[in-house]
Amino acid sequence: MSGPLHRYRALVKDGSIISDPGQNMALEKLQMLWGRLGEVKPAAQKSRGLFGFGRKAAPEPTLNGLYLYGGVGIGKSMMMDMFYKDAPIEPKHRIHFHDFMQDVHSRLRIQRTKGTEDPLNIVGAELAAESRLLCFDEVQVTDIADAMILGRLFEVMFAAGVVIVATSNRHPKDLYKNGLNRHLFVPFIEKLETHLDILHVNGPPDYRKQEAERGGVYFAPVEDATRAAFDDLWRSFCGDNVPFPAMLNVQGRFVELPLATKTEVRATFFDLCAKPLGSADYLLLAQSYKTVFLENVPVMSPEKRDQAKRFITLIDALYEAKTRLVLLAAAEPDALYIAGDGAFEFERTASRLTEMRSEKYLQAVG
Predict the structure, then answer these.
(1) Distant-in-sequence, close-in-space partners of 332: CB < 8 Å, separation ≥ 6
(2) In a 3-state reduction of DSSP, which class is residue 270?
(3) Which of 34, 171, 241, 340 lies at a 20 to 30 A Cα distance from 68?
C-alpha cells in the first residue's frame, strides 16, 4: 500500500518517528485526498471560457485540497512532503510560499510590460496549466501587495480544479491580521474556507527543539568568549582561502557582501537585514554559498519590525536551501523578537533557528 499515511506508519514501525494522534488525524485526511487525486481532470480538459474570456465558467470543482495549520515544529511540512512525494498526479509542484509569491510578481511584471489588460487572469491561467497539484509550505501574508493579488489568483486556480495543499501557523481567518485595508483580503479568506478542508493540527512539542544540539553553530550572547569562538570557526572554515569582499548580482542590482570565499560568506545583521533587501536577494545568497556566518544579530524591538521581517525572510531562504548558518546573536532564538508586528510569525523562525543548529540539519547540509 502507498500514500502518506502508510509512509508515516512505516516510519513509526521502524522507530524513525514517534506516533502522534494529531499527526495521525492530519495524515488520514491527506491519505483520503491522495486517494482521490485520480479524479482530478487536467485544466486543459475544462471549458475554454474558464479564465473569463467571454464564455460561461466551469462548475465549481468538488475537490480542491487541504489547509493544515498549527504551532511551529509539529510536523506540518513533513506530512505535506509525505503526501507530495508520490502523489499520483502530474504536473505537480511543491514550493515555499515566499518563493511562490516572488514568481507571481515576476510573471505579473512580464504581463504588464506586454500591456496585458488583465495580467492576474493570465498569470492564474499559466499557473493552473502548469500544475494540477500545488503544495504550499508556510503560508503567511504580511504584505498589502500580496494580499491584493491572492484573491483573484486563487479564484482562477480553484476554478481550474487545481488541488492545493497548504501549511501555515495560522487559521485562514488570522492571515494578514490587522493589516492595512484588510477588508479587501476577506474574500480570499472566504475562498480558502469554501474550497479547502481546514484542519488544526495538534502535534507533539516542537521536535526541532527536541533534536537540537546546543552550541556548535549558534553563539549567544554577544561577548568576548562567544565572539572569539565565532571568529575561530570562521577561520577554520576559510582554511587557506583568503576571504575578500564580494557582490551578488540580483537581476542587475548589486548586493555588497563584506567577506566571502567560494563557499562561505560573512556578514553582519546590519548588512543583510537593515538594508532594503528582499526574497530575491536572500534566495541568491542561499544558492551561492554553502555556509553563511551572520554576526551581531540583536534583540529586535517593535520599532525594528521591518528588520525582523527581513530576518524572517532570510532564515526561510537559508532553511529551504539547506544552507549552514553560523550565528552570533544577542540572545537565544526564542528571545530575539517577542513583541511587535510579526512576532507570531517569528515563533516559526525561532524554531527553524533551533533546528538549523541540530545534528540532523547539519548532516543534511553535508
Answers:
(1) 220
(2) helix
(3) 340
Quote the mean pLDDT of the chain. 86
Q: How far apart are CA 17 and CA 36, in angstroms?
A: 27
Question: What span, in angstroms and rounded, lies between the C-alpha atoms of 14 and 351?
Answer: 26
The number of angstroms, rounded, from the C-alpha of 258 to the middle of its chain's C-alpha atoms is 27
> The C-alpha cell of 230 is what?
565565532
Q: Is omega for the bond preceding 221 within 30 degrees of 0, making it cis?
A: yes
Q: pLDDT digits over 307-365, tens only? A: 999 999 999 999 999 999 999 999 999 999 988 888 888 999 999 999 999 888 887 88
Measuring CA to CA, which residue among 289, 219, 280, 217 is closest to residue 260?
A: 289
pLDDT at 335: 94
Bridge partner residues of 267 (DSSP)? 294
Please give the Cα distance from 67 to 311 (Å, whole number).
26
- Supply 143's cell numbers: 504584505
pLDDT in tens, 299-320: 999 999 999 999 999 999 999 9
Distance CA 217, CA 225 (A): 14
CB atoms near residue 351 (< 10 Å) = 22
Is the alpha carbon torsion for 280, 284, 286, 287 positive or negative? Answer: positive
What are the residue ranges in the chain where pLDDT is below 50? Answer: 44-62, 208-215
Which runs of consecutive H residues, i.e. helices, occur in 60-137? 76-85, 97-113, 119-130
CB 334 within 8 A of CB 350: yes
pTM: predicted TM-score of the whole model, two decimal places: 0.63
Place of cell 575561530: 232
Query: In order of start, what are the domains of the chain with their CATH numbers?
Result: 4-200 (3.40.50.300), 207-365 (no CATH)
C-alpha pair distances (Å), 191 with each of 22, 35, 133, 158, 328? 25, 24, 17, 9, 43
Which cell numbers in the block locate residue 279?
A: 526574497
